[in-house]
Design brief:
6-stranded antiparallel sheet; 44% strand; 7-stranded mixed sheet; mainly beta; 44 strands
């Protein structure tokens, strides 16, 4: 079974009484990245592009940690000396959230910050949730100050780093035993059925069976239901087959007589194995999220159909008879290829909210139950969608007889950046957003005049936004028509001849565009028959202009 998490949690403690300076950030607050002086355990520090955070994405050993932004100016610098010198310097670090990382370095000064000397090598947090330990034996016998800063002093892109539990022992002091345990930080929730791996790191303390040169061993208990286990090595501990529930893991270093050290060296961590909620369809899952909040795990029995699949974040919009949801699969858990019209079987994962939009993050692969399925868009008014956006969220919806405010014949759809284009039915207004940079209508004209189109409904913090999948969604039939008596036939064209008749039957300009918006024909004719024999099989957009009036037609050529 897949092992989902390997996090480090380090608890420093003393085996013998010694002087040291330590910072755990639990009693300080700094909510801005702006440079400011903060007293940390009695010594002032300058914290530039650094704050003390407790956000969800912050890793912290406890309730708070320092968060360095990762800009070129990001640093933590002591503004006063630590007396007694420094023997060993150590701290814990991990990336913030999923930020990409940069190189960092530690330096010290013994002349009040006039000159700085690097301690050890630069370090970089890995692209994982594993907590790392920076440790260096400095042995500086002088009043000293340190700073932690970005190694390259350029850049303004977030590459945030969390730091916690800074410890500096006095020069000449004996090194302290320490215990690092690879297990969930407090409050982490594992997916149903997950194995939990505990990676151990013990320093300055020799673990083994009682004998010469051995300091002691490790005691641990997993409760509820677990008994005390005496561990005589530092190999990983494996927990498998845990039922859904909340567990407390307690570890401690003890001597050869099974007595606690003075003071004790140990750690207690609480984690949860989530329950799997089996629901019949997407609507049942949505109802449970509304009632109990996001973050739970679900297995959906009904087989929803893919209405749109993107390479971006491996996203897939799926819809069944009851509802729809966006699958956000940045980790690529679903490895089975899916295309529009495929029904998805075995959909299992966890819900979350992104700016109000319900998302589903899969925890297991899914399979194709059937292909070629059709999802008919729901016809809805703007008032319906605005009144209950959650009811339409991620569904395919058709909007009839609406007008774009930017449909002036010159404005085009743009991405990047994703842009809003308001459309209205004369009473209500909704934003059409160019969320899909890959859509083939990017760069084409915003529809002019009354039109109809199909779109996926989004939710931005309670406000409806819609996004079309392709040009086909935006060109359902004849639209933007101001030509009286216009008839265009046959559609599809089978023999290469298209007939266009109007009440005036005057000279017409006929422009034909492919689905990428490229003009492939431009004909001016006073006859009804238009020769399209040069066109290959496919979908086209035909723009007809007669007597200063125009219309646009979606046309298939076979």
């Amino acid at each position: 079974m897949k092992k989902l998490y390997t996090l480090l949690f380090l608890a420093f403690s003393l085996f013998t009484v010694q002087a040291q300076y330590s910072i755990n950030f639990e009693n300080e607050t700094k909510t801005s990245y702006a440079s400011a002086t903060v007293a940390l355990s009695g010594i002032d520090w300058d914290m530039t592009e650094t704050l003390i955070g407790n956000a969800t994405a912050d890793w912290k050993n406890g309730t708070k940690s320092a968060r360095l932004r990762g800009y070129g100016t990001s640093s933590m610098t002591m503004l006063a000396n630590k007396t007694g010198g420094i023997g060993n310097l150590s701290f814990l670090y991990r990336r913030y959230g999923t930020d990409a990382q940069v190189d960092w370095k530690v330096e010290y000064s013994i002349n009040d910050g006039a000159n700085w000397i690097q301690v050890g090598s630069t370090f970089t947090a890995p692209a994982s949730d594993e907590v790392q330990t920076f440790s260096a034996q400095m042995d500086v016998n002088a009043d000293v100050r340190i700073r932690i800063k970005r190694a390259t002093e350029t850049g303004t892109t977030n590459a945030r780093l969390n730091i916690d539990d800074i410890v500096m022992t006095d020069f000449g002091a004996a090194a302290s035993p320490s215990l690092a345990i690879g297990s969930p930080s407090n409050g982490i929730v594992f997916a149903p059925g997950s194995d939990v791996t505990v990676n151990l790191t013990v320093t300055n303390f020799i673990v083994g069976n009682p004998g010469a040169g051995i300091d002691g061993h490790i005691n641990y208990t997993l409760s509820p239901g677990g008994s005390l286990v005496m561990k005589y090595d530092t190999t990983p501990i494996e927990f498998s087959g845990l039922a859904a529930g909340i567990y407390t893991l307690t570890l401690e270093l003890v001597d050869n007589a099974n007595n606690s050290l003075t003071p004790a060296v140990g750690a207690t961590v609480v984690f949860e194995i989530a329950a799997l909620n089996v629901v019949g369809n997407v609507s049942e899952m949505r109802a449970d999220v509304i009632a109990n909040g996001a973050g739970k795990y679900y297995q959906i029995i009904e087989e929803p159909v893919v209405t749109y699949a993107r390479t971006t974040r491996n996203q897939k919009y799926v819809q069944d008879a009851s509802g729809a949801v966006l699958i956000d699969d940045v980790a690529g858990i679903i490895t089975t290829p899916f295309v529009e019209g495929d029904a998805m079987s075995g959909l299992t994962g966890r819900t979350s909210l992104f700016s109000g939009l319900l998302q589903f993050t899969p925890t297991a692969n899914a399979t194709v139950a059937s292909s070629g399925n059709t999802v008919t868009p729901i016809v809805a008014s703007l008032a319906d969608v605005l009144a209950n956006v959650q009811n339409y969220e991620s569904k395919l919806v058709r909007f009839n007889n609406v007008t774009f405010a930017d449909g002036n014949g010159t404005t085009t759809f743009v991405n990047p950046p994703a842009t809003n284009y308001n459309f209205t039915d004369g009473v209500d207004t909704v934003a059409f957003r160019t969320t899909f940079a890959e859509a083939n209508y990017i760069g084409s004209l915003v529809p002019n005049g009354a039109t109809s189109f199909v779109a996926l409904v989004g939710n931005f913090n309670g406000t409806a936004q819609v996004t079309a999948r392709s040009l086909n969604d935006l060109t359902l039939s004849v639209r933007n028509n101001t030509i009286n008596g216009l008839k265009v036939y046959p559609n599809p064209v089978n023999d290469g001849i298209l007939y266009i008749t109007t009440d005036l039957n005057e000279e017409k300009n006929v422009q034909v565009f492919d689905v990428l918006g490229k003009q492939v024909l431009n004909i001016t004719s006073s006859t009804e028959a238009i020769n399209l024999s040069s066109l290959i099989t496919g979908l086209y957009i035909v723009k007809i202009t007669e007597g200063g009036k125009s219309a646009t037609v979606k046309l298939a050529v076979k």
